[in-house]
Amino acid sequence: MLADLVLGIHFLFVIFVVGALPAVWIGAGMRWRWVKNFRFRAVHLGAIIFVTAEAAAGAVCPLTMLEAQLRHEVASRNFIGYWLHRLLFYSFPEWVFITAYSVFLILVLVTWYFVAPTRQK
């Protein structure tokens, strides 16, 4: 059960990293003020920098390692855990992930330029 909780947190992290970018662009078009929130944008940028650096260094994600360690204790996976795992993990060569994360990081940096965050006073 704890492994499924870690998997759920991992899934939410991925949703944040991937979903925040289109949300910023949509929000900019709709003039939503929250998409320019500096803290939100800094956390998002930091998250994709971490993921990209981790992949480039060949490191395993800490959440993936924790889940794997917990799975040794509990062999079964519930329905939601099974599908979240299927959505998150793919079998591609490492260079595919490094390239995808790097391109995504560049898109996030370009977004910082065109939809610049603002610091609140």
Estimate the strand proportion.
under 5%
Oligomer: single chain
The number of distinct structural domains comes to 1
* Structure classification: mainly alpha
For the sheet with most strands, the description reads: none
User: What is the alpha-carbon Rg in Å?
Assistant: 16 Å
Task: Note the total helix count.
Answer: 5
Q: End-to-end distance, in Å?
A: 43 Å
Explain the layout of strands and helices:
Blueprint: H1 2-30, H2 38-56, H3 62-73, H4 79-88, H5 94-114
Helix pairs in contact: 1-2, 1-3, 1-4, 2-5
Question: If you had to describe this structure to a student in words, what would you say it looks like?
Answer:
- The structure is a single chain.
- With 121 residues, this protein is mainly alpha-helical.
- The protein has one domain (2-114).
- It has helices spanning 2-30, 38-56, 62-73, 79-88, 94-114.
- Helix 1 packs across helix 2, helix 1 (2-30) runs antiparallel to helix 3 and helix 2 packs antiparallel against helix 5 (94-114).
- The protein starts with a helix and ends in a 7-residue tail after the last helix.
- The mean pLDDT is 88.
